[in-house]
Design a protein that fits this description.
about 90 residues, mainly alpha, rod-shaped, Methyl-accepting chemotaxis protein
Length: about 90
């Protein structure tokens, strides 16, 4: 009977060791998952920042395009006004 009890104790000890090993593995998995989650949050925040910057740049480019159009019209108007002047030869 002692042999039977010793075998049961040995089996229980072995199961206990496997359970501890699984718990350690689970803790490592949770830690890794937490790190991946933090990286994902950082990446998402960076993506939002880049998106906002891109929108600002697009708005600036639209303003520049509008300004170029206005300057083109003003240059054409100025050229037409200059053509109205007659330059007399002073010789």
């Amino acid at each position: 009977m002692k042999k039977f009890v010793d075998e049961v104790v040995s089996e229980v000890s072995e199961v206990s060791e496997h359970t501890k090993s699984m718990a350690t593995g689970t803790d490592q998995f949770v830690q890794t998952f937490t790190e991946i989650s933090a990286i994902s949050e950082t990446t998402a925040a960076s993506t939002e920042t880049i998106s906002a910057s891109t929108e600002e740049q697009l708005a600036s480019m639209e303003e520049i395009s509008t300004s170029v159009g206005t300057l083109t019209l003003l240059a054409e108007e100025l050229q037409n006004l200059v053509l109205q002047f007659e330059v007399k030869d002073q010789k």
